[in-house]
Amino acid sequence: MKRHLRLFFILIAYLVAANVFAGGAVDKVTGEYTRGNCPGYTCEPPGEALGRVAHRMVSAHEASDKHPQKGFLLSWTDDGRWWEIDLSDTDNTCVHVFEDGRARIGGLVSDQGGNYSGRGPIGRYYGMVIEDRGEPAYWEDRTQTYAMTSIRMGEFGWEDVRDAFLDWCKDLEDFPFEHAIWPGIIFEGNLQVHNSPKDGD
Q1: Spatial contact of 36 and 50, defined as CB atoms under 8 Å apart
Q2: What confidence score (pLDDT) does residue 4 get?
Q3: Running DSSP on this structure, what letter comes out for residue 1?
Q4: How many domains does the chain have?
Q5: pLDDT by residue (tens digit) across 77-86?
Q6: What distance in Å separates the CA atoms of residue 63 and residue 51, rounded to the nearest whole number?
């Protein structure tokens, strides 16, 4: 009886370890952090005032042979405004870890809240270049947001906008439409890009 119990627990431990290992093989971007735009589009040492400070939480899992793309990107500011991208909407979003420490993620802003002037970001496509430059994250990890500021669903044709975003994310093409670029630095929290060695990128 004791032998069977021991074998049972060994088998359970093996299965748990196998699941942990399999879960670690997925390309993903995770973290909760605070970022700000760099003055003059350059990132200087700590001390300079940063613009567009926002808190972000991300759980972005790239699609694999066994698992679909999933996750979310949530951004909020201290004045109560927030927006979200639902990364399980694979028709309009993308997660692409393309090399160690670097990823492109984003897509259609599907929800927002708070007191925005005008329509706010909902209906726009935001693409983000994520750079995990090691530990600690403070003043090392970086994000660069590409906001298709004049592009919303229904303008220029929905399929054209969606396809341009997906080409930018998956194939590392340039945006063919007008856009703004907001380089940013992470100064609180942590951002991690997990690149599996098994998928060839």
Answers
A1: yes
A2: 42
A3: -
A4: 1
A5: 999 999 999 9
A6: 33
Separation CA 102–CA 37 (nearest Å)? 19
pTM greater than 0.85 (yes/no): no
In a domain, 100, yes or no: yes
Q: Six-digit token pair at 62?
A: 């790239």
Q: How far is CA 144 from CA 148, 168, 182, in A?
A: 13, 14, 6
Burial of 164 (0-12, 13-18, 19+ CB in 10 A): buried
**155 dihedral zone (left: phi>0; alpha: psi -120 to 50; beta):** beta
Give the range of the structural domain holding residue 135, as residue numbers without chain letter: 28-194
Query: Does some domain include residue 14?
Result: no
Q: Is 40's pLDDT higher than 70?
A: no
Report if residue 91 sits inside a domain: yes
Phi, psi of 179, deg, nearest 5: -155, 160
How large is the average pLDDT for residues 93-97?
95
Classify residue 63 by burial, with Cβ atoms within 10 Å: 0-12, 13-18, 19+: middle
Q: Token pair for residue 58?
A: 């991300």
Residue type, 124: R
